[in-house]
Amino acid sequence: MAGFNKVILMGNLTKNPELRYTPNGTPVTNFGLAVNRRFRQAEELKEEVCYIDIVVFGKQAEHCGQYLSKGNGVVVDGRLQQRRWETEDGQKRSKHEVVAQTITFLPKRPESGGEQGPPDETSSGDEEGHS
């Protein structure tokens, strides 16, 4: 049976993006995304927040590192990935993250001011594996 792995998220960055380069020179940016959900439970309005790690490769990674900062809104279109590794003391670890294929920058809120990013940052990123 064929699988389907597609994730679309809209939220705000929880911290400034971290841009680095793989040993072969591919740009990679990581950032956290907070996605809020408001709902009504009985008569009370509640809100829950889901925190997701995002990884972006290629030219898009450089644009994210240059133009985004904590609090900025983005739409992420990508796929879910699980990374597994072993710590130095032999403990097995894993985590889920979204590997972004496209990132769309949302307009900044009027009160935040500052520089605007590229008006339509929706190009596909160059994807490579990472350890």
Explain what you see.
With 131 residues, this protein is mainly β. It has a single domain (7-110), classed as OB fold (Dihydrolipoamide Acetyltransferase, E2P), CATH 2.40.50.140. The chain has one helix spanning 58-67; strands at residues 7-13, 18-21, 27-41, 44-57, 73-86, 92-105. A five-stranded mixed beta barrel has the order 1-3-4-6-5. The chain starts with 6 loop residues before the first strand and ends in a 26-residue tail after the last strand. Mean pLDDT is 87; it is low at 112-116 and 119-131.
Helix-strand category: mainly beta
CATH topology: OB fold (Dihydrolipoamide Acetyltransferase, E2P)
Mean pLDDT over the residues = 87
Q: What is the helix/strand order?
A: EEEEHEE
Largest sheet: 5 strands, mixed, barrel
Number of discrete domains: 1
**In whole angstroms, how far apart are the ends?**
28 Å
What name goes with the CATH superfamily? Nucleic acid-binding proteins
Strand order of the largest sheet: 1-3-4-6-5
Number of helices: 1
Shape: globular
* Strand coverage percent: over 45%
The parts where pLDDT drops under 50 for at least 5 residues are: 112-116, 119-131
Q: What's the CATH class, please?
A: Mainly Beta
